[in-house]
Structure formats: C-alpha cells, structure tokens
Amino acid sequence: MSLLQRILAAAGAGLAAIGLVFTFASTEGAPIAVWEFPLAAAYLALAVASAARFRVQFSLWLDAALAALGAVALVGALDTIQQAGAGYWFALASSWMLAWLFAERLSQAIARGQAAELTGVVIPVIFGIAILVAWETITRGANVPRVLLPSPSGIGASLIDNMGKIAADLQQTFVKSVLSGYVMGCGAGFAIAIAVDRSPFLKRGLLPLGNFISALPLIGIAPIMVMWFGFDWPSKAAVVVIMTFFPMLVNTVAGLNAAGRMERDLMRTYASGYWQTLFTLRLPAAAPFVFNALKINSTLALIGAIVAEFFGTPIVGMGFRISSEIGKLNVELVWAEIAVAALAGSVFYWVVALVERAVTFWHPSVRGGRA
C-alpha cells in the first residue's frame, strides 16, 4: 500500500470508530433507533477491516463493499432522524474515505495491468455516487432549505413527475435549436476555413472579423436574434450558429497547416494539385483539429440555446422552464432541467468522441489509448 492509501485506511478506521462512539453515546438512555443497528454494523466493519488492512491484503472490491454499506445505512437513516448528530457526519466521512481508497487502489491496479482498462469506468461512477450520497445526506441531514439546495431524491422525484414537460423542453431546445444550429455553424466554419486557406486575402480579412464576432456578448446577441428571426427555435439556432462558427473556423485553419513540409513536397513531386493535396493529405492531418472544434461546440451549442431562450421563446424550452420555474421557487424542477441538459450535453460530446475515434483511428492519441 502506498502512503496515501495507508492514510485513507487509517482515516476510514478512525472516523468509523469515532462515529460508533458518538452514535451510542448520544442516546442518553433513550432506546436505540432501528436505523442505528445497520449504521453501527457499517461503522464496525469499516473500522475492523481498515485497521486489519495494515497486515492483511484484502480484495480490491472490499473497499467498495464497505463504502457501499456505510452509504446505504446513511441514506436509509434519513427517513427516521430529525437532525443528524455528530456520529452521522463521522460515518459520512468514513464512507467517503473508503470510496476514495477504492478509487486509488483501482487506479493503481489499472496502471499495473492487473485490471482491464474498461474497469476504469467504475472510478467516475463511484465518484459520482459518492457525491450524490454526500449531497443527499448533507441537504437532508442538516435540513438545508430546499430553495437553497434541494436533495437529489427531490430532484429525481420532480424529474419523474414532470417527465412529459421536460421531454417537450428537451425536444424544443436540443433537437430543434442545438442540432440545427450546430450543423449550420460548424458547416459554415469548415467551409469558410477552406476558402480562407485557399485565398490569402480572405485569410487577412475574415479571420479578424471572425474573432470580432466571437467576442460579441451572448446576452447582447440573443435579443437581436429574437427580433430578427422570431420567438421560435430559429432565433436560438442563429445564436448557436454564431457561437459555433468561430471555434470551427480557427481550428480548421490551424489543422490545414498541420501537414508537414516534407509531405507537401512529396505531393508536389507526384504532380498533385491543390484539391488532391487537400483531400488526401491536409484534411486527414486536420481531422484531430476539426474534431476538437466539434467537441468544444457540442457544449457551447447547448449553453447558447438555453441562454437565448431567456430572452424570448414560446412556452416550451429548457431555458424558458428554468427562467419561469425559478420565479415560482420550484427549484426541484429547475435542477431537474439542469440535470437533463447536462446529461444531453455529455451524451452529445460522447457521440462526437466516438466518431472521432472511428475516423482518426490512425492518430497516435487514439492508437495510444487502445494500447
């Protein structure tokens, strides 16, 4: 075990033991609540197993099992307690330490080749679950006002109750505004980049103009686009076009210049013209740059569409819903819309990354990731 892992194991054991003492010492003669038994069992298992780790090499997955035991007991206890005591917070810290220890040991196993690389997906999943457990326990255990920060369970319930409304908002914002604006903006940026590469005059004239357009404030552009294209999705798509145009333009121009001079000289030796060199050498060399722009724009497009909906939209859309529901203090629905938007943006980014790996399979970064 590394020094960090020993520290995490010792911290998990110590916090579990302290939490066990606080839990039963705070009863003051009152009957022990039912939820305290599984919580105490989790404390005891965490303490004994973590302390024994200094002499016995436990299974990698025991860390995850112990952390999960503590997390389940903590979340289950929220239905029966009024206000979490000191023992409860020590238990939360102990469970977090064990989850951290599991992630450290799994990362080390992957680096040594003792675990499949695909197993690395477990690490962000465990980290995300740990954050959700901490969020749930802190908001409910400390009685945080829902208008400040609702619990994940409340957000999930709101998501289920308003599934139809959120689906309509997602269709309006993502399917209509984001995808259409993304395709037009990225396509225009790519086409103009080819023209800029072909013409030195355009390179000196359009690049500074594109830089100027990219510096325009979004909150100033959105109302103007609404006035020009109306309140429906075309005005939001226009905002997305403006936001995605310049990153694609700059990255594509840089990528077209990425081909080496030796390769270009070889193409000229074979009497290749401009378009032959472009399609067989320069565009393949520019592919990593183009996909970088596509990945950047996959998140910018969603942000631009949602913000644009704040300045005028029909009574549907993620930005409209966030703006209207926050005024009603319906924060659970606001957070549900935010969660769905984040999930949609992440899936969009993931799809673009998959296409990149399929197209640029020859690139060292992709081949290195597969090794």
Explain what this protein looks like in three dimensions.
It is a single chain. It contains 15 helices and no strands. With 371 residues, the protein is mainly alpha-helical. It has two domains: 3-144, no CATH class; 160-370, Orthogonal Bundle (MetI-like fold), CATH 1.10.3720.10. It is flat and about 80 Å long. It starts with a helix and ends with a helix. Residues 27-32 have low confidence and may be disordered.
Shape field: flat
In CATH terms, the superfamily of the largest domain is MetI-like
Low-pLDDT stretches: 27-32
Structural class call reads: mainly alpha
Largest sheet: none
The CATH topology of the largest domain is what?
A: MetI-like fold
Total beta-strand segments: 0
CATH class of the largest domain: Mainly Alpha
Distance between the termini: 27 Å
Mean pLDDT, all residues? 77
Quick structural summary:
The protein is mostly helical and 371 residues long. Helices cover 78% and strands 0% of the residues. It has helices at residues 3-25, 36-52, 60-77, 86-111, 122-141, 152-161, 163-198, 200-214, 218-229, 233-256, 261-269, 274-308, 318-327, 331-359, 364-370.
